[in-house]
Each structure stands twice: as structure tokens, then as C-alpha cells.
What does this fold into?
Amino acid sequence: MEKILVCIKRVIDYNVKIRIKPDESGVITDGVKMSINPFDEIALEEALRIKESGNANEVIIVSIGPDDTQQQLRTGLAMGADRAIHIEHPTPLEPIQVAKLLSRIVEQEQPELILMGKQAIDDDANQTGQMLAQIFSYPQATFASKITLNDNTLEVVREVDQGLEILDVDLPAIVTVDLRLNEPRYVKLPDIMKAKKKPLEVLDPVSLDVSLDPSIKVLNVSAPPPRQSGVMLEDASQLVSSLKEKGLLND
It folds into this structure.
């Protein structure tokens, strides 16, 4: 194939403890370590492996976010992507808006394969890949744990509640990946230096002619209540009595 497009998102690093703003308008991001969404990093690693096996000529990464998003794009370039596209937008967007913006990049680049994580760890929406597939009526495979390229088709092993499901999809296609697909490579210093010379295109959403008017309003963001300590019970009768007291079990 000629091109693989990988969609990545800038998120708070998974090792960082999330803190809520005092006014409950969102989470604190100032001074917080940001990283590539882990699922998207796995998607990029898979794209690079496909290219390194001789089955793709170019890997392109695209991300939507504020100016600082270029840090994560440079990390993706250091991993091995050939070039990057940054759609600069200062505030978070809804999945449908992200899908529409990405669709403009797909129209522009015409990739045979689009890879992204199954979900982002900040909102856990798990919607963008499916929406993008609907826009183009492309075949899609979600929760991929193994991808095998066969000429103009993909064999995708996906994880479902009952176990594993195997799909054959025609290209072009959209695949969202799961944790067990691969282990992303570490970025080395020489690769970071090389990444500074790789092309990174910055686009204004206005030029893509996509409405970014929000349809959802966040009223407040709050932390989950502290978990209550457990109670040791001696037998099943005490368990039944305790459940009845809490109104969780009827007579």
C-alpha cells in the first residue's frame, strides 16, 4: 500500500494523578505531563511495523489540539513516522467534530489504511473511528489484537466479550487497536534529533470547512466519591442481613 494514516491524541500521561479544577469546570492540565494516547501509540507502532515489512511506503500521523500538540507529533516522528499534520485547535472537541476534521485529511491524503486507538484514556469515548468509517462507508474493525495484511485485504483478530473474532476487511479500511496488539518501541536520542527535520504541516480548522460549534455543554466535572471501607462478615446470613439493611435485597 502507498500510505497509512495514524490518528493520535494528546492526553494527560497515564502515570499522572488527575486533579479537578477548583471551579469544577474540568481537569487541571497546566504543568501536567502530556503524552500520546497509549492506544494511539500502539496504532503507530503497528503502522511502522507494516512499513518496515515492506507493505507500505509512507506513515503519516495527524493530531488535533493546541500548539503544544506538536510535542507529541514530534515524538511520533521520532518513532519513525515520515511526516505529521497538526490541526491546531485550542480546546477539546467532540468525537463527531474530530471525525469530520479527520475526514478532510483522509480526502486529502487518500490512505489505504487508517489506524487509531480504540479509545482515548481521557474521555473513553470510543467513537471517533466508527464515525470516520461511517462518513466514508469504509470497512472497519475495532478492538484489534492482531492485524495481518493479505494483498488488498486485512485479517483482523478482534477482542469481544465472548473471546476472539476474526474479520476479513477490504482496503481502504479503518482499524482501531487494542492493548495486546504490540508493544511500542522506545524513542532514542538520535531519532529525536532526526524528527526535528521531518515535515510537520500545521492547518487551521477554518480552512477545512468543518463546523466546530459544540452540541454538548459540560456543566461540571467532579471526582468520584471516596471508596468506603469494607466490612468483614462471618457467614451468609450476615451478608443477607447487611444487604437488607442497605435496601439492596428484598424479603
